[in-house]
Amino acid sequence: AQKITQTQPGMFVQEKEAVTLDCTYDTSDQSYGLFWYKQPSSGEMIFLIYQGSYDEQNATEGRYSLNFQKARKSANLVISASQLGDSAMYFCAMREGNQAGTALIFGKGTTLSVSS
Amino acid sequence: DSGVTQTPKHLITATGQRVTLRCSPRSGDLSVYWYQQSLDQGLQFLIQYYNGEERAKGNILERFSAQQFPDLHSELNLSSLELGDSALYFCASSAEGGAPGELFFGEGSRLTVL
C-alpha cells in the first residue's frame, strides 16, 4: 500500500490566488514527521515546511502552511497568494519515527502551474 | 545551495555498462541517502549510509551498490545498465537527532542509458 498519496497529478491556479495540494499518509507509528518539498523545472529539491505528529499547531512558513488533520491522516499544503515562481512539482513526504537520520518516503508529486 | 555536491550532473552511457555517481554531503552530516527519480515511479529511496555503515535499504536493485568512505563522501555504482535505469539520481544528507530531520538534496545526476 502507498504510504504517501498525492491524488492530484496537476493543479492550475491564477496568480495571487490560494491553492491547496492534497496529501494523505498511512502509518501505524505514533511519532512521525511530514514534509513538503518543491522541485522546480531546474530539478533541485527544495525543503518547504515540516509538521511533527505531536505538533498541535499547523506549521507555517511564509506563504506556505500545512493543514494537518491527524485523524484523517492528511497533510495538505496551502500556498497563499500564488506567484509565477511557484510553478513546480510539489512532493509530500513522511519520516516514520521522531528522529532525524531516517529516510523519507515520498509521494508521486503534484505539478502546480501558476498563470498570470 | 544545499551544501550537497553531486557529480557528474549528466551522464550518457550504453546498455550493459557500469557507472559511478559521487556525492559529498553537507559539512557535519553523517547520513547520506540515495534516491532515484523516474517519471513513472516518482522518488524512490534506494539506500542510506550513516558514518560509513549501511543503515537502511529501500528499493535498490542487486545490480546497484553503494558505499560511504571515511571522509563521508558516498558513491553509487550502477552496473549492467538497462534502458529503464535512465533516471535522475539524487543524493541527500541530513543531520542527526531531533526534528525536523529534513533531507538536503544535491542537484542530482541525470543518467541516460541508450
Can you offer a commentary on this structure?
The complex is a heterodimer of chains A (116) and B (114). With 116 residues, chain A is mainly beta. Helices cover 0% and strands 50% of the residues of chain A. Chain A is built from no helices and twelve strands. Chain A is globular and about 40 Å long. The mean pLDDT of chain A is 94. Chain B is an all-beta fold. Chain B contains no helices and eleven strands. In chain B, the strands form two sheets. In chain B, strands 2, 4, 5, 6, 9, 10 and 11 form a seven-stranded mixed beta sheet that branches. A four-stranded antiparallel beta sheet of chain B has the order 1-3-8-7, with no helix packed on it. The chains are: A mainly beta (116), B mainly beta (114).
What are the main properties of this structure?
heterodimer; A: 116 residues; mainly beta; 6-stranded mixed sheet; 4-stranded antiparallel sheet; 0% helix; globular; B: 114 residues; 7-stranded mixed sheet; 53% strand
